[in-house]
Every structure is written in C-alpha cells, then in structure tokens.
Amino acid sequence: MNDLSSATLEAVRLLISADSELWEIIFLSFSVSLKALLLSAPIAILVAYCLAYFNFFGRVFLVAVFNTAMSIPAVVVGLTLYLLLSRAGPLGDLKLLFTQEAMIMGQIILCFPLLVALSYATLYATDRRIWETAVTLGASPIRVIFTVLKEAKFGLMAALIAAFGRIIAEVGSSMMVGGNILHYTRNIPTAIALETSKGSFAQGIALGLVLLFLALLLNLALSYIQGVGEVKT
Prior knowledge:
Elements: H1 2-16, H2 20-53, H3 59-69, H4 74-85, H5 100-125, H6 128-136, H7 141-151, H8 153-168, H9 172-178, H10 188-198, H11 201-232
C-alpha cells in the first residue's frame, strides 16, 4: 500500500513538474491520434452519407461490414500492418514500419469503421425531409450534403469523440507497428505497458491519470452535446 501511495505521489509530481519525457509522450500520443482522426473523418462521414441517402447494390452488406469492423481488435490491425510493412511484406519498400506514419495508419483503420457506423446511424435517423427539400429546391450536391450534416452535427460530433477515445487508448497496433521507440513512437498506452513491465509505476500512473482525465473530458463533452441536441429537438 505504501508503494502504491509513493508511486502515486511521484506520478503527481511528474505531472506538476512538467517532466519533459512524460509530456513528450503525451504530446506525441495526442498528435498521432488527432492526425488519424482528421484524416479519417471527412471520408468516413461522406461514406456514411452515401450509405444513408442512396440505395445501391451491396449497401446493406457494407453497413454490416462497418458495424462488424467496429469491434476489430487493435492487435489484429497491428499484426496485419506489420506483415504488410515489414521488409518481407508487399509495402516493405516504403520503410514505414516503426514510424509515426505507421501508427497513424493503424489508428485510421481502427477509427474509420467506427466513424462510418456511428455517422451512418446519426444521418439515417435525421429527418429525410431535410434532404428531400434541399434537392427539390435545386441545391447543389455539396450544398445538400452540408445542409444534412449541419442538421446532424450533434450526432456527428459524438461520433468523432467516440472515435478519438477509441484510438487514443489503443495499445496493440501502436506497439506492433510503432515499436515503442523513445522520443519517436512511444505514446501513452505503450509507455504505460513498458513502465508496468519494468516495475516502474510512477510514470505509468501519471500517464494513466492523463487518460482518465481525458476520458472524463470526453464523456462530459459527449453528455453536453447530447443534452444540447435534445434541447434543439
């Protein structure tokens, strides 16, 4: 118990004292995850829009695929990317293995189906008369899309928050394709795993506190968005 208390106090000291190594890991983790989210979101929302408002062959199958892919384990994504990016793999010449770019690729694969599935559910539930009215009034396709997205903005923001929460805490993919290299690819989850395996708990607890605080902020933001959305409706 004393060891736990000492480690927790040391973790708080590391956070307060702005330990350079600790905050470097935090900033790298946020940088990689935000880039993955920003690269995924526009295409994922567009795909969700097409699934929600257009009928075409295979549409139901695609919806089922994206819903299923939401639960794909991070370690499976990491293993697949590792095999593709390793020197013996088909993409080995790109030399992306153990880089931040590889980590971003893994997180894109993880958050893309989640963004599509949640955005599709939001857009499908949006009053279809909004889309029909915009089309009838002769609005351009881009204008129609933005009109619908504006109406569904609260649900879409919730989808973005959920996707970010999914990738910021994943460890399997980042560990396998990033290599957990200090000052380069070590993010919050991989650092926690490393420090715990070494029996050095202070930094792991400090990073865990950051993730817990982030989870609290994300849930508060999600609750606020849902509350505003209910008031608007």
